[in-house]
């Protein structure tokens, strides 16, 4: 057979016809990484078009009336390379990003990359804690609801999830501030509602850590409630999809207890689609961080972006957009790799 | 000669009548099924109330109530017999703002969904129906747009384009189509393989004919169910963008109301009547669209029906 002698000539269709194509994990990883690189490139192009081409005359939009004489406009165009042809501008744009140069903030007079690095950890702390809490609680609610579908618990948790899902997360934050932060009537405010820690406390001391946790209670609660609505609904519907399957019947016929059937058979399979959907929702997670940071004035990336809207501080907006999309792409890649590892069937 | 033409006309009429009758019957069946969904009917009820209020706005509250210069109520006054929901920082009745704001919020939601649906359906159809590189390029494009985080993109677009009602609609419409496109694509892929499409192809139907006459009518119900879910997301997006100060400054929507409430510190001063009503309206309308969308999905997707 020529199969061995000329491996390069094996026809694609012949191979796929003879056996189901299932790549090894390494090939799957390679493919997904390539896809992520593709997405990153596309994102860079969008970024470039969004901030250089769409505004029409950048000197006018970006300068917002501060550039009065023609000489000033020329100098501005020269600084940002705006008088070069577009392909040249795109190359400059790529070169700057490769060097970590995201421009200077008009508002803070500081390099945008430095601003972003300063605030990145705050956002990660807020979003990370809430996502973990929301996933755990949401998945638990989904499992309990689906297993006793139509029961009291299911009806309450589905109703609450749907209501939370229909709510702008920052409005929920406002309600929590009004109820628990400011206090109403004779009830005093319980939790602080602004910043990450008190002004006069060193955040690195033990006291400072407790202070930070205390400040994070309300925003983390807000984000957790906002995210968990999604996760519990997804988990509930994935588990419901599994309920009619034959293998559960088999498991029951074997004499397994209900809890065992649920935890070792149904939930394991239902978790798979949930993983992907949670990954696809990461863009939504970013949105939540932006608005909740604004409402609670937590100095993270989201507040940086919303503060930039009014100025408008284009380079800050561009930088945060870049970081947010890169974060989403990376998180997606991680979820895809995890999914491929958990479920070999998707490696086709 | 005349004989054949009359029979041809007669059969054409009857087939047309037949298909029309069949369509009406299937709508009736769908409605009968939808009616059995309690949550869907509740959603429909809520929505009808809001639509009536939005349409009847001029009858319920005078438009002059929106004019800052003519407002003569107290500043951030608490609810009273004259101002049922209190007043805002300019002395305008919050109830009046709420009634007129429903128009803008619903309009933005519906128009943005229309844009999103047209783009999503077109790209979904093309990426599902066309084999080879055309389909693949459109599929890639959908995947790429899917990972761009919505709010940062919308903020960037809205900042660059400027603040107007039209731009808000455009921004939400252009950023919310990828989910629809993926859904339509997977539907198209399965419909494409069905015998009647194959038959049409064998007779010599062109691609666009197949899409228009066979694929599109079959994906339309799915588009319809997805539309109601997209309206929910579009209204939420409008509220969020307006709250971040990207709304049209000359129009009052529930989002811009919440923005001003936050700006004047209605929370720290305890002016609950300025914060709670607009938010409750948003939640109710979004919930209504979500419930209707879910019920429609179950009516149209028999696999889901047994679950509920």
Oligomer: heterodimer
How many separate helices of chain B? Answer: 13
| Count of separate DSSP helical elements of chain A | 15
CATH architecture of the domain at 95-308 in chain B: Orthogonal Bundle
CATH superfamily of the domain at 110-347 in chain A: MetI-like
- The level of helicity of chain B is over 70%
Most extensive interface: A-B, 57 and 43 residues
The CATH class of the domain at 95-308 in chain B is Mainly Alpha
Gross morphology of chain A: globular
Distance between the termini of chain A: 26 Å
Give the tally of β-strands of chain A.
Answer: 0
SS content category of chain A: mainly alpha
CATH-derived topology of the domain at 95-308 in chain B: MetI-like fold
C-alpha Rg of chain B (nearest Å): 24 Å
Helix content of chain A: over 70%
CATH topology of the domain at 110-347 in chain A: MetI-like fold
Q: How does the SSE layout of this entry go?
A:
The complex is a heterodimer of chains A (348) and B (308).
Chain A: H1 2-5, H2 12-18, H3 25-53, H4 58-63, H5 70-79, H6 86-98, H7 112-147, H8 152-165, H9 169-182, H10 206-243, H11 246-253, H12 258-280, H13 282-296, H14 301-310, H15 314-342
Helix pairs in contact in A: 3-15, 7-8, 7-10, 7-13, 7-15, 8-10, 9-10, 9-13, 10-12, 10-13, 11-12, 12-15, 13-14, 14-15
Chain B: H1 2-35, H2 38-55, H3 57-60, H4 94-129, H5 132-147, H6 150-161, H7 165-175, H8 178-192, H9 195-203, H10 207-243, H11 254-263, H12 272-300, H13 302-305
């Amino acid at each position: 057979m020529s199969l061995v002698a000329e491996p390069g000539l094996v026809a694609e269709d012949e191979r796929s016809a003879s056996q189901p194509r299932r790549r090894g994990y390494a090939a799957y990883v390679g493919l997904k990484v390539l896809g992520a690189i593709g997405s990153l490139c596309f994102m860079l192009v969008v970024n470039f078009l969004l901030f250089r081409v769409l505004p029409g005359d950048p000197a006018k939009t970006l300068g917002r009336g501060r550039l009065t004489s023609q000489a000033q406009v020329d100098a501005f165009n020269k600084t940002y390379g705006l008088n070069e042809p577009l392909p040249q501008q795109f190359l400059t744009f790529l070169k700057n990003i490769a060097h970590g140069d995201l421009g200077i903030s008009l508002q803070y007079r500081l390099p945008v990359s430095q601003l972003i690095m300063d605030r990145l950890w705050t956002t990660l702390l807020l979003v990370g804690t809430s996502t973990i809490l929301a996933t755990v609680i949401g998945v638990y609610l989904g499992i309990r609801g689906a297993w006793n579908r139509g029961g009291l618990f299911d009806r309450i948790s589905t109703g609450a999830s749907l209501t939370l899902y229909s709510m702008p997360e920052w409005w929920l934050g406002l309600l929590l501030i009004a109820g628990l932060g400011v206090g109403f009537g004779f009830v005093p405010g319980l939790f602080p509602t602004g910043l990450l820690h008190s002004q006069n406390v060193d955040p690195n001391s033990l006291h400072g850590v407790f202070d930070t946790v205390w400040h994070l209670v309300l925003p983390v609660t807000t984000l957790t409630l906002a995210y968990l609505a999604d996760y519990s609904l997804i988990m509930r519907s994935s588990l419901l999809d599994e309920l009619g399957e034959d293998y559960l019947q088999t498991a029951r016929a074997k004499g397994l207890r209900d809890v065992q059937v649920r935890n070792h058979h149904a939930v394991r399979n239902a978790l798979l689609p949930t993983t992907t959907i949670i990954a696809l929702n990461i863009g939504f997670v970013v949105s939540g961080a932006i608005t909740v940071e604004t409402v609670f004035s937590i100095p993270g990336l989201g507040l940086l972006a919303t503060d930039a809207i009014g100025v408008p501080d284009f380079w800050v907006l561009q930088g945060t957009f870049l970081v947010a999309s890169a974060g989403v792409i990376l998180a997606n890649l991680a979820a895809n790799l995890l999914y491929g590892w958990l479920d070999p069937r998707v490696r086709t | 000669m005349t004989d054949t033409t009359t029979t041809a006309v007669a059969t054409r009429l009857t087939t047309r009548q037949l298909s029309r009758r069949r369509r009406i019957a299937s709508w009736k069946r769908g409605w009968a099924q939808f009616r059995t969904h309690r949550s869907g009917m509740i959603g429909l009820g809520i929505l009808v109330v809001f639509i009536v209020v939005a349409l009847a706005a001029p009858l319920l509250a005078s438009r002059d109530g929106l004019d800052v210069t003519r407002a003569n109520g107290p500043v951030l006054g608490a609810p009273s017999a004259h101002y049922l929901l209190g007043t805002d920082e300019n002395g305008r009745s919050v109830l009046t703002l709420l009634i007129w704001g429903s128009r803008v919020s619903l309009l933005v939601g519906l128009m943005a969904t229309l844009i999103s649906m047209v783009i999503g359906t077109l790209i979904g159809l093309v990426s599902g129906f066309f084999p080879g590189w055309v389909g693949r390029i459109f599929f890639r494009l959908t995947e790429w747009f899917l990972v761009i985080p919505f709010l940062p993109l919308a903020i960037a677009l809205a900042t660059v384009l400027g603040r107007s009602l039209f731009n808000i609609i455009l921004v939400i419409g252009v950023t919310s189509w990828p989910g629809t496109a993926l859904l339509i694509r997977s539907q198209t892929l399965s419909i494409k393989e069905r015998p009647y499409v194959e038959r049409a192809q064998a007779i010599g139907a062109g691609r666009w004919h197949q899409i228009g006459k066979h694929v599109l009518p079959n994906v339309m119900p799915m588009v319809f169910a997805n539309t109601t879910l997209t309206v929910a997301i579009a209204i939420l997006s409008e509220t969020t963008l307006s709250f971040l100060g990207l709304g049209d400054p000359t129009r009052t929507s529930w989002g811009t109301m919440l923005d001003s409430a936050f700006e004047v510190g209605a929370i720290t001063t305890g002016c609950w009547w300025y914060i709670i009503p607009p938010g409750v309206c948003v939640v109710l309308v979004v919930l209504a669209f979500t419930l209707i969308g879910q019920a429609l999905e179950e009516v149209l997707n028999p696999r889901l029906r047994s679950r509920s």
